[in-house]
Amino acid sequence: MTTMTSRERVLSSYDRTGYDRIPVKHEATPEVNRDLIHHFGLTNMEQLLRVLGDDFRYVDPVYCGPELRTFPDGSIEGYFGERYKRAEFEGGSYLEASYLPYAGVETLDQLDRSHFPSADWFDYSTIRQQCESWNGQFALCFGTPGDMDFINSIARARGMEEVLMDLLDDNEVFIEIMQARFDFYYETHRRVLEAAGGLIDFVHIGEDLGNQRGPMISKEIFERHFAPKFKKYFDMAHSYGARTMMHMCGCVESFLPRLIELGLDVEDVVQPTTPEMDIAFLQNRYADRLVFCGTMCVQSTLAHGTPADVEREVRRRLELFPKGGLFLGPTHAIQVGSPLPNILALYRAAGSLMEKPDESILAIAGGEEPGKVNMSKLF
Considering only CA atoms, which of 156, 158, 138, 160 is closest in space to residue 146? Predict the structure, then answer.
């Protein structure tokens, strides 16, 4: 088969019409990305994405809103007034919520709405230029797993236990915060899509509807609080010609039929922790209606397997999706401590890895620094 551009490869896989190789989508922690950059003798993330064969690129509006403050304890401010501080562990660190401004707020008259963000906080004037700069080479995306993300991200400003009780009780404070969060991301995405003029292929949002063993919420709660919002958002995205991608950790199979009805096109990241989340089960049940992204487990195969285990799991997916329907990648950011040979085996078995970067790759400048905090991707 003739060699495809990344965009052709992704869209052919999406349409299930075949490809020259399976599309891949890389994600790793900053520490892992730094190790990969060092291994290949590179200098930036764009070079690394080329070497690994990542077929996707993201565009972003320019943040021009109020200063997101850094506090004396080192914590940084989020869009909703919450704060994050680095939790250190052996080999790396994660930003964790350290100040929850809406914890314990029980009535609307106690709710401080001054921290609610606005889509006006961004400059969208460069979006079209960003899209055109890729010359149709890559599948273009906008958004992050933290966009929408009502349960997880509101919990970062209110507390997980309180949010789960809010959903049961239809708490008016949670409903108000959830609506503000939806309005913010809906309008931000709409303005980006409008500015892009049809050049964005996928929009990316998230909602962790599952845990390791099963759903986080009931179908009744999903229908009451989530379904109308997702329906409105998916319809809007489709009206601009974009396809919808939704990051969902955990066991979410029971929600998939309804999400497909609402307009979901791509399930990201397919965490295989229960039998019904196994990729063969999902392929058999949903492959004609839903595209999958991810599926290579960062908790088992990539972290604790061997290169042969990784290669076997990749081959299994190639056999399950010979014409498309899967964008191959990890089930989350590849974590610190994952053996480098396993990571390389993933992309080598996929056929995307450039074993030795050539001069054209080494000459590429730019790309986000692997250790830099991109606030738009955190919240």
Answer: 156
Q: Is residue 167 part of a domain?
A: yes
Following DSSP, what letter does each residue of 129-185 receive, concatenated? HHHHHTTT-SEEEEEEEEEE-HHHHHHHHH-HHHHHHHHHHT-HHHHHHHHHHHHHH
| β-bridge pairing 326-330 and 139-148 | unpaired
Q: Are 50 and 362 in contact (CB under 8 A)?
A: no
Which H or E run includes 379?
Answer: none
Q: Helices 30-40 and 340-350: crossing angle, nearest 10°?
A: 70
User: CA 169, CA 55: separation in Å to the nearest integer?
Assistant: 43
Residue 370's pLDDT band, with cuts at 50, 70 and 90, is low
In this structure, is residue 328 part of a structural domain?
yes
pTM greater than the 0.90 cutoff: yes
The domain total for the chain is: 1
Tokens of 255: 């929600």
**Interval 284-333: pLDDT, tens:** 999 999 999 999 999 999 999 999 999 999 999 999 999 999 999 999 99
Q: Give 327's strand partners.
A: 293
Residue 265: is it exposed, middle or buried by C-beta count within 10 angstroms (0-12/13-18/19+)? buried
Domain boundaries, position 148 = 6-68+118-378
Rounded Cα gap, residues 168 and 153, in angstroms: 17
Q: Give the pLDDT band of residue 371 (cuts 50, 70, 90).
A: very low
Give the three-state DSSP class for 115. helix
For the four alpha carbons of 255, 257, 261 and 265, in that order, the dihedral sign comes to: positive
Sequence-ordered list of residues with C-beta below 8 angstroms from that of 206, at least 6 positions apart, any chain: 144, 145, 146, 147, 148, 149, 152, 246, 247, 248
**C-alpha span between 93 and 18 (Å, rounded):** 40
